[in-house]
Design brief:
single chain, alpha/beta, TIM Barrel, eight-stranded parallel β-sheet, 16% strand
């Protein structure tokens, strides 16, 4: 399995870890810690040194209840970071955005992957990616961040997420975006209960039937705290979920704790691949 990100063809035969770089004041886990550009770049370099094959730069929080920010604010937060990271050439630079203006600017600044929690449903977003050479991660989210956790309901969460992602894949292909540029994310924690989230991990083989690589982002999320009963300590639970996702076939794990997650991914892959 491979993923085309601009001029980079990412080999996903061995699962990769994407490091999270939130340059926002209100992200659920590390909000405000990396709003300073120098600190953000230092943290990105540390994650790359720890083994992150991708760095995901986000300028707008998508935590439950989060309020939107202006395009101008998002651009000020992410573009200087993307430019600096792309200049080093040490990693695939991803931008976590849904705004077509930010997509275009990020691609021009050197990003080679777009990570869109709205799966290119905003007007102009599909066209912005189609006009670029960037890869695109299509994620499922029920509703919007401000309201997505208000009693989400599904008759069959795996089947409904799979159908949504299949529809978005078809839309991308119709717009001229090659399949090798497509990555799927079932949206763990985005408009789902704990039961829904766990069903998606267990049901990952069904999502893989779409024939595309899958990314899972479970790091430090509230479901971990609910399951363990320890909201102040989410690392071990996040690692357990990362390992379970790799055993189920995930290709990329999006995480805050890169070194620890990479260890879990390597062990799970060894089990999964029979090494």
């Amino acid at each position: 399995m491979q993923l085309r990100c601009g001029s980079t063809l990412l080999d996903l035969t061995v699962p990769k870890v994407m490091g999270v770089l939130n340059v926002t004041p209100d992200s659920f886990s590390d909000g405000g810690r990396y709003v300073d550009h120098a600190r953000a770049l230092e943290h990105a370099e540390a994650m790359i040194d720890a083994g992150a094959a991708l760095i995901d730069v986000g300028g707008e929080s998508t935590r439950p209840g989060a309020a939107p920010v202006s395009v101008e604010q998002e651009l000020r937060r992410v573009i200087p970071i993307i430019e600096q990271l792309a200049r080093t050439g040490r990693t695939v630079v991803s931008v976590d955005t849904s705004a077509p203006q930010v997509i275009r600017a990020a691609c021009a600044a050197g990003a080679s992957l777009i990570n869109d929690v709205r799966a290119l449903q905003r007007p102009g977003a599909l066209e912005a990616v189609a006009a670029s050479e960037c890869g695109i991660c299509l994620m499922h989210m029920r509703g919007e961040p401000r309201t997505m956790q208000q009693q989400p309901e599904y008759a069959d969460v795996v089947a409904e997420v799979k159908a949504f992602l299949a529809e978005r894949v078809a839309a991308c292909e119709a717009a001229g975006i090659a399949r090798e540029r497509l990555l799927l994310d079932p949206g763990f924690g985005f408009g789902k209960t704990v039961a829904h989230n766990l069903a998606l991990v267990r049901g990952l083989p069904q999502l893989l039937e779409l024939g595309l690589p899958v990314m899972m982002g479970m790091s430090r999320k509230s479901s971990v705290a609910v399951i363990t009963g320890r909201p102040e300590s989410r690392l071990a639970g996040s690692l357990a979920l990362a390992a379970a996702a790799v055993l189920a076939g995930a290709h990329i794990i999006r995480a805050h704790d890169v070194a620890e997650t990479l260890d879990a991914v390597k062990v799970a892959h060894a089990l999964h691949a029979g090494v």
